[in-house]
Design a protein that fits this description.
Length: about 300
């Protein structure tokens, strides 16, 4: 009788833990905090942390066998990141994932390379970094074409390439256990596109976001956001970003079709009041408009 009662108690405990995992919530309303130009860390859960330096974000994942780190950002940020990891675990950094080729996201990894970490990125990163090398930017040890599955300490990450959109090597990191994705630059919640949209291909950007939406994600960690923005957002921000680009392109095309072809006139003429509460609407919307003018006028 005693053994039956013990077995029932164990089963009840397992049921509670399973239910807790199934109903896990993430801090979608909590700001990252910290000083504006400083850094901060937010524990999302299950060993997953979001690190902020200024308005840049990355993640690190602590497993039983070591740590997986994303974009080191720059040498100063990477040192701060390393110190924050050491507050959580003494386990070594085993892997560093490059989201894409842009130096402002992936510099500074030498601190982890010196500890024996392996670097992973899309195969196109090799050619891009060969054209723009940096002494603080180790080349990837592992490259892939369409997808790559990374497993460490019982955790699995899925790395996926969606073709050109922002450069030609950008990947999305998916955490299937939590159904969270780390998405860099092509999704920045509640903010218009960055300035003149450097190295963005508007039509490919929209296509990629549609494909990512089909992943049916639950949450998104984006690679940009100030200290007063949350570390993680509902996946609806992917659609929000896509619709903004579509609205922007439609407004520019309509104006050009009606006979307005001067980029200066377009910058002054086009307003998207639906997004006037988004970050940098006043400063960057005119630059966004001119980039889309170039897309239609020059095919670029």
């Amino acid at each position: 009788m005693k053994s039956i009662a013990q077995a029932a108690l164990i089963c009840f405990g397992l049921l509670l833990s399973t239910t807790a995992m199934a109903t896990a919530t993430f801090p979608t309303q909590e700001p990252m905090g910290g000083k504006e130009f400083g850094h901060s860390v937010k524990h999302i859960g299950n060993g997953l942390y979001v690190f902020r330096w200024w308005v840049y974000r990355n993640f690190f994942l602590v497993t039983d066998e070591g740590v997986i780190v994303s974009d080191p950002l720059n040498p100063k940020a990477a040192q701060l990141l390393q110190s924050e990891i050491r507050k959580v675990t003494t386990k070594p950094v085993k892997y560093v994932i490059y989201s894409h080729n842009h130096h402002d996201h992936i510099s500074g990894g030498t601190i982890f390379k010196d500890q024996g970490a392996q670097f992973i990125g899309h195969k196109n990163v090799l050619a891009e970094l060969a054209d723009h090398p940096s002494p603080v930017l180790p080349l990837p040890d592992i490259t892939f074409e369409d997808s790559y599955t990374l497993t460490l300490g019982g955790r699995t990450l899925e790395l996926r390439y969606f073709g050109p959109n922002h450069g030609n090597s950008l990947i999305v990191t998916h955490f299937p256990e939590e159904n969270i994705a780390f998405i860099v630059d092509i999704v920045t919640p509640r903010r218009v596109a960055f300035r003149g949209m450097p190295d963005f291909w508007p039509d490919e950007w929209v296509r990629s976001l549609k494909e990512i939406e089909r992943m049916d994600l639950a949450y998104v960690i984006s690679a940009h956001g100030p200290q007063d923005q949350p570390a993680i957002d509902p996946a609806s921000v992917i659609k929000d970003q896509r619709v903004y680009i579509e609205d922007l392109m439609a407004a520019v095309k309509q104006a050009m079709d009606s006979g307005v072809h001067s980029p200066d006139a377009l910058r002054q003429h086009i307003k998207l009041p639906k997004y006037q509460q988004w970050q940098y609407y006043e400063q960057w919307l005119p630059m966004n408009v001119e980039r889309i003018w170039a897309y239609y006028h020059m095919g670029w």
